[in-house]
Amino acid sequence: MKSSAKNYGFGLLLVLPAMAVFTLFIYYPFIQSLYYSFTEWDSIRDPKFIGFDNYIYFFQDSKMMQGAKNTIWMTLFGLLIQNPLALLLAVLLNRSFRTKAFLRTAFYLPVIVSLVVASVVWNSILQFDGVLNYILTHIGQEQAARDWLGNIRTVFPVIVLLTQWQALGYCAVIYLAGLQSIPADLYEASTIDGAGPFMKFRYITFPLLMPAVTVVVFITIVGGLRLFDLPYVLTNGGPGTASYTLTLAIYNAAFKEFTYGYATAAGVVLMIIIMIVTFAQLRLTRSREVEL
Amino acid sequence: MKRTLSLTAVLLVFAVMLAACGGSGSSGNGETQSASAESGTSTNAGSTGEKNEETAASGEPFVIRLGSWFIDDRQHMTDFKANVEKAFKEKYPNGTIQWDILLSATYMDKLKAELASETAPDVFFHQNTLGQYAEAGYLMDLSGEPWAGKLRPGSKIATHYKGKVYGASMALNAVGVWYNKKIFSDLGLSVPKTWAEFIDMAEKIKAGGITPIALGFKDLWTANLFLELVVQSIGYESSPTYGKDLYDGTKKLNGEEMQSAMRKFEDMTKREFFNKTALSLDWPQSAELFSSGKAAMIVQGPWMPGVAADNFAKYGFEAFEVGYMPIPTESGYYNLNISAGESLSINVNTKHQQAAKDLVSIIVSPEVLGPFSEGNGSIPALDGVEATYPTPALNEMLAAVNNGQTSPGYSSFIPVSAATVTQETVTKIVSGVNFNPNDLKEAQNKLEKDKGTVILPPE
Amino acid sequence: MRRIAARPDNRAGLLTELAMIVVALLFLYPVFYLFAASFKKPEDFYNPLKLPDSFYWGHYAKAFDKVDVWAGFLNTAFISCGALALTIGLTSMAGYAIGRRPQKTFQFILYFLLSGMVIPIQTNMIPLFQLGVDVHLIDTRTFLVLLYTAGTIPFATFLYAGFTKTIPRELEEAADIDGCGRFRTFWSIIFPLLLPATGTVIIINILSYWNDLFTPLLYLKDPDKMTLMPQILQFKANNQSVDYGPIFALSAMATLPLIVLFVFTQKYMIKGMVVGSMKG
Lengths: 292, 459, 280
What we know:
The structure holds 3 protein chains of 3 kinds.
Chain A: H1 4-36, E1 39-40, E2 48-49, H2 53-58, H3 62-93, H4 100-112, H5 115-126, H6 131-138, H7 155-180, H8 184-192, H9 197-225, H10 229-234, H11 246-255, H12 260-286
Antiparallel strand pairs in A: 1-2
Chain B: H1 2-28, E1 62-68, H2 75-91, E2 95-101, H3 106-116, E3 123-126, H4 130-136, H5 156-159, E4 160-161, E5 164-165, E6 171-173, E7 176-180, H6 181-186, H7 195-207, E8 211-214, H8 220-238, H9 242-248, H10 256-270, H11 283-291, E9 295-300, H12 304-315, E10 322-325, E11 335-336, E12 339-340, E13 343-346, H13 353-363, H14 366-376, E14 379-380, H15 392-403, E15 405-406, H16 416-430, H17 437-449
Parallel strand pairs in B: 1-2, 1-3, 8-9, 11-15
Antiparallel strand pairs in B: 3-13, 4-5, 6-12, 6-14, 7-9, 7-10
Helix pairs in contact in B: 2-14, 8-10, 8-16, 10-16, 11-12, 16-17
Chain C: H1 11-38, H2 58-66, H3 69-100, H4 104-115, H5 121-134, H6 141-164, H7 170-177, H8 182-193, H9 195-210, H10 214-219, H11 228-238, H12 244-279
């Protein structure tokens, strides 16, 4: 056997390249950001130290708050509606339909489309004189036709629904994988014991599915909290501030309004939110995981 | 445990070393004195880097880079390029111009990055950043250039900083309402002289089954143009120093002037003067709407008649004559902001100083700038360059400019973040929401918070 | 252990299946729209439901004319593959080391890496830019490869670490007895066994690299080096007049390689996700 010190050294060697790249490109800029978040800086002239002012203003800024509100809505929706729907979809896709292969492809294909391309297509479909309104008028629902992305009340819900087009397939596939790894014997044994479908779900499916749930919920939360591409390309936050997300607000504060120090501070706040939420989530779901 | 500590120490040292390397790297880079944003020391902006060699004079072939974001394939743009190249070749047979063109707003971000990394073009166009770049030491002092004294007052904000000239400018743009003369004559309408007449006129157009005003608010800058046009008149009617007043705090963004403007937008929205697709159309689509005759008016810059003409040809619309009118206040007053469209500066690090200066001189010479202005519909930014526009609409614009008052745009006195809030308020109103004065309070807050980012226009 | 047996078909099953097919078709519609619209003649373009009766190649011609599509394709491919290769190389080693060694140090390293996952890209935007400038890598494809790799390191390492635990230690001991060097042991014996995890890393990340807009938008400026997504966006911004045909054509072309990849690796993709999510 090798000496454990040598083993240790070798281990470190293996880890070093990854650590180097990671630290240089992720942590080093982050530390710099922390410094800038305490300054007033337009990224061209000198930064000016202003202490916690940026952070204080963040909570008074209605644009950031709107972005935060939308972001939280998006995440809650993801958790409470997208998740169960994806699970349902997975259960359905698990049945032996004749068109099983087609169905699975159909639901997963949207995932492949980039958000930029999706935005181009959806923008075209949702325009006032686009396909959706065209269909609505032709089936006699003319009053339902509207400028979906130009109306303060409909714009963000529409964007949330658009994310589902891709999110459902993605999550469903993960759940599907989880479902398929549950041994059938367990179900059969429980049938013999007289368990109904509900009990089966609660005592077999759900606990054994927990690892998949952990992953899906994690992805949903982080994805929801970081939503950027769709609102950026589709509406750039409009009309007014109705479709802002936090990440979009941060981006605009930096690149459109030259308040880089402020933008970074907002970025740090966002990061703290993500950390808290994911930490809580991981603890909650991992503790419920059941190993075979 | 000890192992963990030592490992952490190693990592820390690692990080510190990186920080040191990164810091010294940026100031050790390049032999010149231009400041990078990181080290943050502004150098004497007038210096031109004595170590740079002048290669043009020696007769060797060289390439000079010219950066821009607006030189696309419209006719007057290609003519412009040809004219510039011809004149440059005459002076420098060995020189070639490399056009670094990036046709979108991303150009500004890239330019900023290039300046910070000392990879910017030798000569470049930019917009709204003259003061900042000058202060950061990126720009060559051009106060001694032959054309420097010929710059018109309206161009000062894009060319002067702390009394020195850091850039030239090509175009002074006036924004206004461009209208379809055929529709007007068909409906027996004349150009309104007061706000009440304006409303009246629009109502008549609406009654005629045509959309009065085409909006393309998906591109926020079009909302900005419209808003500024309205506020400029109202604001400067109330005070001849409206812009400065906003900066000083004697006038507020949630004051009477802004509120009046917002209420006007609310009124126009309620009266359905705008296309239903106002918020999902972008600028090109709104231009198309106007050119097709489906909308009677559009608020845009002086490029509009040219774009309309292009659209007639491209889409086969029936051509009509375009007219110009400003937006009056209740009393009939109007004030136009003749602002410079862009700055043209020389990179302080350029290796071709004389060639760069000559290139700039060529661009603002009457032979080049004249035709450019005519095609672009802009007023030349220098004295001594005359433009006679082929389109009557542009001449109407010039007449309006000469007959009315002009002042610096009020928005150059307020931070971008505050202006953005006002624009977003407009889009909200146009989407159908009632005007809420609290939105303007938000704008005022931003003004006070981000005042430090404003570089005041020169007097 | 048998897999879950599929339920037998029945009446309700048939109805459900039909409903599913309808929904599936709706899901597919936007993709269909993308390709169909790219072939429509300009006059028909705004006519929503009209199907193209012939293939109009004009939009594609225009796209190729205005934008260097081939360069965009190559750049995107180069960056994606480069990032994948580098990531796999670095993280398989790191994950293996962490998975095998129980010492606190390695667990700390893992958490350190994972903590980086929560940092949003926006936070690091400008310091990263400055960094790129300082190391003279700004506006290079290499820079993007490094950035993508750095961003993927946490999850990939985590994946490899977990998967390593399922490989019996006896293998290494046997190799050691045979006199095999440690490095060789890793690459010739362990790495091939990590293939399912490698597959997962590839499948999950190729999509995000290929479809990424933000990073190349910020850090690349040379049009010769640009990737497909920013090309689409700039193409949209470039036009003084609206001409969606070529934009659709470009978008269709950008999506096609992924669709092809997906069709050929579908089974493997799903299998990889099973492994990935279970062992994670």
